[in-house]
Amino acid sequence: MESALINVLMFWMLTTPHEFAHAWVAMKLGDDTPVREGRVTLNRLAHVDWLGTVIIPLLMSFSGAGFIGWGKPVNANPYKLRWGWTGMALVALAGPVSNVLFAIVLLGLAAHTAGSVNTLCAAAARLSLFLAIFNMIPFPPLDGWKLLLAARIPVFIYNELARFGFLLILIAMSQTSLGPWMSRLSVQTTRMIFDWWA
Fold it and tell me: Which of 67, 149, 155, 190 has a Cα at 20 to 30 A from 110?
């Protein structure tokens, strides 16, 4: 129970800079959509999707069936962004990049602390790296798929696959080796960055 709650709280904290990064980059590239929708903020309530950020991660943590979750998506208009779809690719990359940077900072803290602070920082960094990797899966609505859109994948294909995106992600995570591979990669990267700080 306690472990599941900690996982969800950490996840909620990590989705905030992720979604903020999307919104901030979109704003800097000239799209006022995130500003109008109140997303250029580090207020955690602005970025929460109660189903994807709290309920599903909590249920999966309780069941031990892995970990899947998401924040409230940031809307960006490629026709308002500087460089159009290339700008959209930069907006999409901003979220995973923020997770990597946040993990580096957390592991810097972990390398110079001890006890529960060390443990929590290392666990949050590992989850942050997992989120960065997870979001690069090329399934809608994840960031990896938006990169394909920026590479001019036809929008109608996105619209069709978006109807089954969550199901495709569940199948990929539960019926293939993708989930365990991402977990191993996040653990290995966590150790590598920690050793670099140490």
Answer: 67
Q: How far apart are alpha carbons 95 and 23 in whole angstroms?
A: 9
d(CA 35, CA 23): 8
Q: Which DSSP letter does residue 74 get?
A: P
Q: Which residues of 144-182 are buried (b: 16+ CB within 10 A; e: fewer)?
A: bbbbbbbeebeeeebeebeeebbeebeeebeeeebbeeb
Cβ burial, residue 195 (10 Å; 0-12/13-18/19+)? exposed
- Domain chopping of the chain, boundaries: 2-197
Q: Which pTM does this prediction carry? A: 0.90
Burial of 185 (0-12, 13-18, 19+ CB in 10 A): middle
Cα distances (Å, whole numbers) of residue 106 to 20, 50, 101, 113: 18, 25, 9, 11
pLDDT tens readout for residues 65-96: 667 788 999 999 999 999 999 999 999 999 99
How far is Cα 128 from Cα 106, in angstroms, rounded to an integer? Answer: 9
